[in-house]
Amino acid sequence: MAQTKADFIKVPVAEGSYQTMPVEPEKRIADSDITLKYCDIDDAEFIAKSLYICFPEDFWMRKEPPEYRPAEQATRVRRLAERHRPALSHPGMHWLKAVSVSTGEIMGVAAWVEPGVPIHYFLRRTAVDFFGWKEKMGWTDEQLVELWSGTGPKWEAEFTTSDVERAEIMGDEPHWYLASIFTLPQYQGKGVGKKLMNWAIEQADATDPVTPMFLESRPSARPVYMHCGFVPQRQYNLLRRGPAVVRGLEAEGQDSDKNEVKKAPKEVVEKEVEASN
């Protein structure tokens, strides 16, 4: 099916910032050249390296302030990789990598947490005890101190706040949760993110009733998820309850933070998603 350019969804952004824009169809990778595979524990280093590349520096300035960082970037990568390892094989946490069929290169990764897994973000220091990972990984107390020694106070605080907000919004309702997602810069806007998103969307929509889906995103990137039917809840949270077409400020005809939500037939939503990534 021929790809089309996504409709523009306007969202509020901070002064001096900009929002994610639709990408021309000819720049996308053919869906047949993107395959999804499960990550294994050996992918932890690749994931860590990629996160330092893909996530903006202001994120890392909050989570790992310069005064806490080790002298060598390799040490930061090693520590972050090790903190990821137990989650890569934890039951109910699905780590998927989008791989180029033609080159074998990993283009992006997503971590989907299935319904029923308790709300506790996997990178929190407290997750080690919550999920029993100290024993699983054979970590000593000294190793744990070293692994988190490069993180600042906001590492635990901000991830904890995200968990609190997610619990407030979702309560005990089972849902899919997007714990992590990135696409390497050279593959962004080419359909990789769509493939990683659709893996869980297809499963969520296959249940009756459909299973809710929850994620966090910076405000400027909201349109990517709104094309998939996610509705903004708070500053960083989005919730999806089945296929929907979500419009932004352009539907209002004015600058506000409201969004128009319309339930739509599956084929309409598929067209929106096809065009958005």
Describe the structure.
With about 280 residues, this protein is an alpha+beta fold. The chain has a domain at about 30-190: Aminopeptidase (3-Layer(aba) Sandwich). It is about 35% helix and about 15% strand. The strands form two sheets. The chain has a seven-stranded mixed sheet with strand order 1-2-3-4-5-7-6, sandwiched between helices. Strands 8-9 form a two-stranded antiparallel ribbon. Strand 4, helix 8 and strand 5 (about 215) form a beta-alpha-beta unit. Helix 1 crosses helix 3. The longest helix is centred in the middle third of the chain and has 18 residues, at about 155-170. This is Acyl-CoA N-acyltransferase. Pfam families: Acetyltransf_1. InterPro entries: Acyl_CoA_acyltransferase, GNAT_dom, Trichothecene_AcTrans.
Low-confidence stretches: 1-6, 8-21, 249-257, 263-277
Reading off the top of the CATH hierarchy, the class of the domain at 29-190 is best stated as Alpha Beta
Strand content: 15-25%
Oligomer: single chain
Quickly count the helices: 11
The CATH architecture of the domain at 29-190 can be given as 3-Layer(aba) Sandwich
Rounded mean pLDDT score? 86
Widest β-sheet, arrangement of strands: 1-2-3-4-5-7-6
Biggest sheet descriptor: 7 strands, mixed
Q: What is the ordering of alpha helices and beta strands?
A: EHHHEEHHHHEHEHEEEHEH
What is the percent of helical residues? 25-40%
Structural class: alpha+beta
Per the CATH scheme, the topology name of the domain at 29-190 is: Aminopeptidase
Cα-to-Cα separation, first versus last residue: 15 Å
> Judging from the principal axes of the Cα atoms, what is the shape?
globular
* Rg over alpha carbons: 19 Å
The counted number of beta strands is: 9
